[in-house]
Amino acid sequence: MKTLFLIVEGFSYQLAKKISVDLNKNTYTRLCRYVERVCKYSNDKRRTMKNFTNFQADETVTSKRKYQRGKRMRRNGSKWCFTMVECATVESNGKKKTRSLEVDIRFCENNKRTIESLKPMIVSRAAPGASIYTDCWKAYPAIAKELELEHFKVNHSKFFKDPKTGVHTNNVEGVHALIKRDSSRQFFRSPDKKSDIGLVLYLELAQWRVNRGLEARATGNTKNLFRSWLTILKQEVSDIKNKSNRI
What we know:
The protein is of the alpha/beta class. The protein is built from 8 helices and 7 strands. It folds into 2 domains: 1-46 and 195-247, no CATH class; 50-193, 2-Layer Sandwich (Nucleotidyltransferase, domain 5). A 5-stranded mixed β-sheet has the order 5-4-1-6-7, sandwiched between helices. Helix 3 crosses helix 7.
């Protein structure tokens, strides 16, 4: 139970071993997969809800910096991910700010950010007539037109936030930076260096962590990741029992 707590809270194997002296690397990895699968169960239940009405969308590629500095270098094995962030405009100290409410991040099918790859993911979460905020990637206008979404875009070759319309994708860009930093902190590697199944499940864990933090901020409650994870585990066990009783 102690090791599960450490994994959920984001402790690396090296730090966890200092607390649990008898912890084996293979045991840590196996328990990571268990924790991540429970998080995937929670995320998949949320993905059945078409509840994104005002969201930012963007793609990111997992890669590394050459010699640990400068721009990130793409290489064989780099993976394209697609992220949607439901947002709300709030007023703080007399200024309007965009607050993130919920995150959904997934792999791009066939590792391509084409219309065919991005459209199903947007369809699964976007409510009818939703507003979508993106950069000027060529796939978005066609998708927004076909799905009858209200589309706002910002030209990142000129500015990060449009000075006239105020459109930006800073929230989703921040999520990308957070997830890449989280992977390096817990696993000492960029996400693309994990195995395919490991990367898929890691993204589920990262998404679940981010959303728990957003929920805690929205409700004013203290973020207790492990207690939330145990609640999801109990729900999954209950669902499995109910399904077996029906058979």
